[in-house]
Amino acid sequence: MREIIKPEPFPLVSSFNERLRKFDPIISKMLAKKKEDRYRSIEEFIRDLNLFKQRENKSMLLSEIESILEKISKSREIGEIKMLKKELLEKICDLAISSAKLDEKSELLGYLEKLKDYTEDENLKRNIDDLTEQSILMIRENITIDQDFINILENVVNRVRESYVP
User: Fold this and answer.
1) How far apart are CA 20 and CA 83, in angstroms?
2) Alpha-carbon gap, residue 7 to 3, rounded angstroms
3) What residue spans define the domains of the chain?
4) pTM for the predicted model, two decimal places
5) What is the CA radius of gyration of the chain?
6) Which residues make Cβ contacts (< 8 Å) with residue 48, sequence separation at least 6?
7) What confidence tens digit (pLDDT) does each residue in 33-51 have?
8) Which of 55, 5, 2 is nearest to 25 (CA)?
């Protein structure tokens, strides 16, 4: 009777294993006592899983960038530095796309600015400037980044990757 009157929430998964703390929000929502607090559809659940995956990917990319920057600062060989800068560009490109998919426009602006440093192509720089202006507008107007914007960003980012010569 007590469970019906005053429902106790399920224990967080992290109470069993601390390494699983990152899953607490999703599992808690899945197991919520009140129907209105649970996922309303499989699509909503999948969306949250995809966002979770994007955040995990972004976290990994940031860690990899830190490692690459440390290697660059310690390296004395020009060939190795060029290779590391190419690797760094790849991670910045991936972070730009990841930030867009997570609708993190302010962070995207920073990555777009860094991408301009990796190209000499004036058309690409204009494309990056256009994406920057669109991002600023979306911030100002509180507009969510849509798939069309992400497709354009991916196209521009891939062209920066292809055009980069260390």
Assistant:
1) 36
2) 5
3) 1-38, 39-163
4) 0.79
5) 21
6) 26, 29, 39
7) 888 989 999 999 999 999 9
8) 55
In percent, how much of the chain has pLDDT > 70?
94
Structure tokens at 38: 């649970």
Task: Return the structure tokens found at 68.
Answer: 């690459």
pLDDT of 11 reads 77
| HEC sequence for the chain | CHHHHCCCCCCCHHHCCHHHHHHHHHHHHHCCCCHHHCCCCHHHHHHHHHHHHHHHHHHHHHHHHHHHHHHHHHCCCHHHHHHHHHHHHHHHHHHHHHHHHCCCHHHHHHHHHHHHCCCCCHHHHHHHHHHHHHHHHHHHHCCCCCHHHHHHHHHHHHHHHHHCCC
Q: Is the distance from CB of 156 to CB of 127 less than 8 angstroms?
A: yes
| Residue 130 burial (CB count, 10 A) | 13
What is the C-alpha to C-alpha distance for residues 36 and 114, in angstroms, rounded to an integer?
Answer: 43
User: What's the rounded Cα separation, in Å, for the pair 40 and 28?
Assistant: 14
The gap between the terminal CA atoms of the chain, to the nearest Å, is 70
Reading the block at residue 40, the tokens are 């309303």
